[in-house]
């Protein structure tokens, strides 16, 4: 089974999911609203989550596994093997969408990073080939991989990662030639070059702030059960774990790009937008660019504005609030991603596991997966699928609202704790209903 | 004055334990109980009970919401349509009709694409796996299609690149 011809005009992946029903969309939105205000009304009134005390030490087996060298070696080897395989097919593979690089880049990496990080915490950090190469360089010249020539400028924070993530989503969703090997190869080469240069200049600190995949993975990994304090591996509830996200400038930018781009991906495929693009005289590429930017800035702006609409302590700056609340959007990002990419990940992801067995598209079967069938089970159960999607969006919303509630109690002066939460809740309900509307009108 | 004063509350309210007997008065959300809401929960003796009632409230609301969500699903059409759906496609002077509108078809319903064109060309069907459907100049024999997998399947003209239709298979 293979993709017929070179369907480069369309990108990768075949048929899409059915839109969710109106009833499901409405009940989802109502659920979001009801749950939000239930949380507001009945939840705790003192901050519950404290990074200093939350969680308990993981069982000794896991402690030893993480402390020992083997897990690190296995993870780094896995990352490097995948990296070298990708480089190989990028250079020697055919220029058609049956080249496995498309699956590795757009499906396994971009979508797979979410489930892997939910399961294992900061997954990309563990396998990151750029970290491994930086480590090898540092060993060779006898320096410390954590240290670079300069200190990473703190006020840059996560902004470089936000820019990198935008560069990825722009490439995937707007750039017309994303389904040709040359541009993918160029994108990856620039990514690796920038990461190695940054690692040399600023050490590993650079990757924590500027590697788009590592930042994405680390943030989503905060919804896993794995935490760490003073070198001890912890098991923590995801709710307590998400509270330990490192706050730095640009966090709102990162989550804004993630939410906005997923929304745009739904929107860009909708019949309404397609028809509009066809009917207008304005260049469609320009309009797609504007729409993606509007979605990302819009998500950032709505949330940042809502966070700042509150009374504050006299010595508190309102402009610090969006980044301080931004971790509450991570569950919403994950909910969106599940709703939007579940069938794509399972279906197209498994399709490329088959294609990966034939790296040069000459009939080889090096992994023995060449005779498998892509997994399409979910598509045959559209009602279940629709319920999973709406469920994921709602669960993401619930967790987000709880996290924002706890944050408000920590951040705001007592007399503004209620009124200060309201705009944030409204923004969240808006984002969730918007996401459901896009699922409905796709 | 905020509606909810930050009264000291024991931690651990949500989703912890379900209490069968909840006094009716306690089912009212605190923000609807003007005086009591502000004062209760301060004394330790009332604390745990409120915790229980709140948990019950949360559970009840979640149950309501989940049941709402569960009702929302549509079950699609049972039993496939057997009537053949004929889609006439015309390509003339580089302009194709239809131009990308949605066409609803049933699972396994036969679909005939009847292409009339002034040049030879091909259509791309974005099913899984994707298919290429060539056609000749003039009037063509119907291209017979059938979709067994629910979803949205786009049909595009290759040259000039333009959408023709979207099959909504359900």
Quick overview:
The complex is a heterodimer of chains A (442) and B (170). Chain A is mainly α and 442 residues long. Chain A contains 19 helices and three strands.
Helix and strand run of chain A: HEHHHHHHHHHHEEHHHHHHHH
Percent range for helical residues of chain B?
10-25%
- Give the topology string of chain B: H per helix, E per strand: HHEEEEEEEEEE
List segments of chain A where confidence is low: pLDDT < 50 over at least 5 consecutive residues: 1-10
Structural overview:
The complex is a heterodimer of chains A (442) and B (170). Mean pLDDT of chain A is 92; it is low at 1-10. Chain A has one domain (4-441). Chain A is mainly alpha-helical and 442 residues long. Chain A has a 3-stranded antiparallel beta sheet with strand order 1-3-2, with helices on one face. The two termini of chain A are 28 Å apart. Chain A contains 19 helices and 3 strands. Chain B is elongated. Chain B has 170 residues and is α+β, with helices and mostly antiparallel strands. In chain B, the strands form 2 sheets. In chain B, strands 1, 2, 4, 7 and 8 form a 5-stranded mixed beta sheet that branches. Chain B has 2 helices and 10 strands, in the order ααββββββββββ. In chain B, 18% of the residues lie in helices and 32% in strands. At the A-B interface, helix 1, helix 14, helix 18 and helix 19 of A face helix 2, strand 9 and strand 10 of B.
Secondary structure layout:
The complex is a heterodimer of chains A (442) and B (170).
Chain A: H1 22-42, E1 56-57, H2 60-67, H3 69-92, H4 100-109, H5 113-120, H6 123-127, H7 129-141, H8 159-173, H9 181-202, H10 205-210, H11 212-221, E2 226-229, E3 232-235, H12 238-242, H13 251-269, H14 271-279, H15 284-308, H16 321-325, H17 330-355, H18 382-411, H19 417-440
Antiparallel strand pairs in A: 1-3, 2-3
Chain B: H1 34-39, H2 47-71, E1 85-92, E2 95-97, E3 101-105, E4 110-117, E5 121-125, E6 131-135, E7 138-139, E8 143-146, E9 151-157, E10 162-169
């Amino acid at each position: 089974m293979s993709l017929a011809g070179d369907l480069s005009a369309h990108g990768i992946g075949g048929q899409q999911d059915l839109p969710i029903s109106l009833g499901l969309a409405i009940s989802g939105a109502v659920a979001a609203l009801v749950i939000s205000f239930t949380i507001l009304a009945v939840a705790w009134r003192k901050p519950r989550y404290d990074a200093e005390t939350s969680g308990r030490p993981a069982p000794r087996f896991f402690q030893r596994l993480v402390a020992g060298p083997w897990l690190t070696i296995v993870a780094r080897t896995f990352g490097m093997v995948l990296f070298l395989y990708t480089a190989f097919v990028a250079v020697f593979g055919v220029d058609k969408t049956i080249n496995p690089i498309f699956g590795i880049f757009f499906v396994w990496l971009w979508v797979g990073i979410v489930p892997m990080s939910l399961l294992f915490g900061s997954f990309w950090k563990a396998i990151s080939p750029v970290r491994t190469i930086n480590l090898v360089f540092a060993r060779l010249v006898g320096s410390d991989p954590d240290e670079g020539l300069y200190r990473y400028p703190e006020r840059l924070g996560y902004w470089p990662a936000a820019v990198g993530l935008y560069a990825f989503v722009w490439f995937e969703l707007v750039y017309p030639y994303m389904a040709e090997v040359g541009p993918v190869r160029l994108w990856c080469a620039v990514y690796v070059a920038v990461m190695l240069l940054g690692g040399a200049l600023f050490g590993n600190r650079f990757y924590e702030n500027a590697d788009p995949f590592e930042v994405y993975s680390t943030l989503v990994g905060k919804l896993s059960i794995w935490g760490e304090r003073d070198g001890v591996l912890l098991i923590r509830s995801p709710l307590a774990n998400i509270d330990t996200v490192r706050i730095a400038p640009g966090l709102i930018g990162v989550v804004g790009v993630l939410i906005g781009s997923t929304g745009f991906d739904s929107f860009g495929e909708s019949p309404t937008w397609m028809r509009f693009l066809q009917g207008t005289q304005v260049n469609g590429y320009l309009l797609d660019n504007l729409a993606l930017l509007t979605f990302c800035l819009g998500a950032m702006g709505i949330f940042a504005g809502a966070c700042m609409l509150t009374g504050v302590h006299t010595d508190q700056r309102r402009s610090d609030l969006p980044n301080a609340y931004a971790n509450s959007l991570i569950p919403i990002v994950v909910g969106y991603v599940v709703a939007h990419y579940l069938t794509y990940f399972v279906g197209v992801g498994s399709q490329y596991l088959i294609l990966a067995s034939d790296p040069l598209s000459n009939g080889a079967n090096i992994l023995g997966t060449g005779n498998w069938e892509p997994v399409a089970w979910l598509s045959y159960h559209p009602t279940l699928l629709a319920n999973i999607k709406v469920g994921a969006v709602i669960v993401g919303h619930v967790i987000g609202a709880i996290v924002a509630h706890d944050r408000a109690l920590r951040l705001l002066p007592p007399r503004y704790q209620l009124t200060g939460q309201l705009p944030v809740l409204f923004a969240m309900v808006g984002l969730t209903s918007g996401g459901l509307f896009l699922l409905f009108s796709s | 004055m905020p509606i909810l004063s930050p009264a000291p509350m024991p931690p651990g309210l949500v989703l912890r334990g379900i209490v069968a007997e909840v006094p009716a008065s306690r089912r009212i959300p605190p923000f609807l109980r003007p005086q009591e809401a502000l004062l209760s929960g301060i004394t330790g003796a009332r604390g745990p009970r409120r915790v229980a009632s709140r948990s019950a409230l949360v559970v009840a609301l979640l149950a309501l919401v989940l049941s709402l969500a569960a009702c929302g699903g549509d079950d699609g059409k049972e039993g496939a349509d057997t009537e053949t759906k004929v889609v006439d496609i015309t390509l003339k002077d580089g302009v194709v009709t239809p131009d990308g509108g949605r066409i609803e078809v049933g699972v396994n319903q036969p679909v005939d694409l009847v292409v009339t064109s002034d040049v030879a060309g091909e259509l791309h069907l974005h099913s899984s796996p994707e298919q290429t459907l060539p056609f000749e100049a003039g009037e063509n024999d119907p291209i017979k299609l059938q979709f067994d997998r629910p979803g949205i399947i786009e049909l595009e003209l290759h040259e000039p690149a333009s959408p023709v239709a979207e099959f909504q298979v359900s």
